[in-house]
Design goal:
CATH architecture of the largest domain: 3-Layer(aba) Sandwich
CATH superfamily of the largest domain: NAD(P)-binding Rossmann-like Domain
Number of domains: 2
Number of strands: 12
Largest sheet: 6 strands, mixed
Number of helices: 10
Length: 268
């Protein structure tokens, strides 16, 4: 029975917010866990835009039956300035995707996207140390992925972004930690992994940042990863599979950060 069917006035609530929200896998993962474990807790999706997060968190602070908040695009940067106790990782990234509400209404925040992504990649036997990454995107999730790649010993990242200033911000963050280049290479034969961390591929933004020709230049041992979790089979992943490349789907990243988020919230 779905966790939502068991909600009572005693149920502990965790919100997951963003805009859009339908693509996120977290409600399914957490609610299945809570139901199986017999825990009276539920994750509830709620559409919240960046200009609404301050008002939303003012309510969360007062809601004694709320354990916290999980965040998806595009509110991770907006939330950072509103938490009292960000982790060191969140402070470096200036973004949070999970917020814990303490009993006194104080909010603590962390950013689990990077470790979650590379935890999922490790399940495919991929270790970042000494590797080269072609990354589409430089937003909150992409920055977290690049940051953790550098922390785990990655050698080089090429970053393609269409947003002014995003690469410069990423370059400042990773200065001295990793070899970094701007733009998508014309050939990926020297790369070990290609990853999409943009909304491109979602239902409302169909497409892929990697052409089939570009994917075909990857070594056969390379991994192709997509942070988009809905649809499960994105254009990028479908093309990579037809080329015989190993793939990692967005729901794998969600599972990779499930334990991190749950532990931070204190609910697992």
């Amino acid at each position: 029975m779905p966790a939502a069917a068991l909600v009572t006035a005693r149920t502990r609530v965790i919100f997951i917010i963003g805009a859009p929200i339908t693509q996120t896998r977290s409600p399914l993962l957490f609610n299945r866990y809570f139901t199986k474990a017999g825990v009276d807790r539920v994750v509830v999706p709620l559409v919240v835009r960046p200009d609404q997060v301050a008002a939303f968190l003012s309510v969360v602070r007062q809601a004694s039956n709320c354990d916290g908040v999980i965040a998806t695009v595009p509110v991770k940067h907006s939330l950072f300035a509103l938490v009292e106790a960000p982790t060191e990782r969140a402070r470096e990234l200036e973004a949070v995707n999970v917020i814990r509400r303490d009993a006194d209404g104080r909010l603590s925040g962390d950013m689990a996207d990077g470790p979650g992504f590379w935890n999922a990649a490790s399940a495919h036997g991929f270790a970042p140390e000494g590797k080269r990454l072609a990354l589409a995107g430089a937003g909150a999730a992409a920055t977290a992925i690049a940051h953790e790649f550098a922390r785990r010993g990655g050698h080089h990242v090429s970053v393609a972004t269409s947003e002014p200033g995003e690469f410069d911000r990423l370059a400042r963050l990773l200065a001295g930690r990793i070899d970094l280049a701007s733009g998508m290479p014309e050939d990926l034969s020297g790369y070990d992994i290609a990853a999409n961390a943009t909304p491109l591929g979602m239902a409302h933004a169909p497409g892929t940042p990697f052409t089939r020709k570009l994917l075909a230049s990857l070594p056969r041992r390379a991994l192709v990863a997509d942070a988009v979790s809905e649809p499960a089979e994105t254009v990028l992943l479908a093309q990579a599979r037809t080329l015989g490349l190993a793939t990692m789907a967005g729901d794998e990243m969600a599972r990779g950060e499930f334990r991190l988020i749950g532990d931070f919230l204190g609910v697992l």
